[in-house]
């Protein structure tokens, strides 16, 4: 059986795969990292977004075989080892940017990539456009946009904490 060797959240894994195995299947079924969700399976909803070498990708349409040597980060790998949340996770919590939470892992991973790519800052419109590939059935997006704007200020050193950004 073919194998793929990749790093997931800083840990190396060599995993048996089939040619058709998807990255999301490898993560959820082989490595039991079930924080990455599957909503549509057809690259529409963004629930399955993870980072490959720092770039957000939809893992439901990425073949595991293409990830040889890659460094993958999932929602489980975003917080620090001591449990300190990433500013984006903290902002989602502080701004009540989730309800059922189904979209949240993918939304957070997409948002981190979006903010990292815009150190100059993002307007509300740019945040909304940047999240076009992530669907949320619950929140109406308003608090998600506010959370991302707050996290962006912290990630780019314009505010010290999410709490400060919330004031
Ligand atoms: S499950 Fe991948 S985009 Fe919906
Ligand atoms: S919080 Fe329910 S789908 Fe987004």
Note down, in words, how this protein is organized.
Keywords: 2Fe-2S, Iron, Iron-sulfur, Metal-binding, Oxidoreductase. The protein contains 6 helices and 5 strands, in the order ββαβββααααα. It has 167 residues and is of the alpha+beta class. The protein folds into 2 domains: 75 residues, Beta-grasp domain (Ubiquitin-like (UB roll)), CATH 3.10.20; 80 residues, Orthogonal Bundle (DNA polymerase, domain 1), CATH 1.10.150. A 5-stranded mixed β-sheet has the order 2-1-5-3-4, sandwiched between helices. Helix 2 runs antiparallel to helix 5 and helix 3 crosses helix 5. It starts with a strand and ends with a helix. One FE2/S2 (inorganic) cluster binds next to loops.
Q: Which small compounds were modeled alongside the protein?
A: FE2/S2 (inorganic) cluster
Order of helices and strands: EEHEEEHHHHH
Could you name the ranges where pLDDT drops below 50 across 5 or more consecutive residues?
A: none
The biggest sheet amounts to:
5 strands, mixed
- How confident is the prediction overall: mean pLDDT? 96
The number of distinct β-strands equals: 5
The name of the CATH topology of the largest domain is DNA polymerase, domain 1
Q: DSSP strand (E) fraction?
A: 5-15%
Question: In one word, what is the shape?
Answer: globular
User: Pairing-aware structural class of the strands and helices?
Assistant: alpha+beta
Distance between the termini: 55 Å
Fraction of residues in helix: 25-40%
What do we call the CATH homologous superfamily of the largest domain?
[2Fe-2S]-binding domain
Identify the strand order in the major beta sheet: 2-1-5-3-4
As an assembly, this protein is single chain
**If classified by CATH, what would the architecture of the largest domain be?**
Orthogonal Bundle
Q: How many structural units, i.e. domains?
A: 2
The top level CATH class name of the largest domain: Mainly Alpha
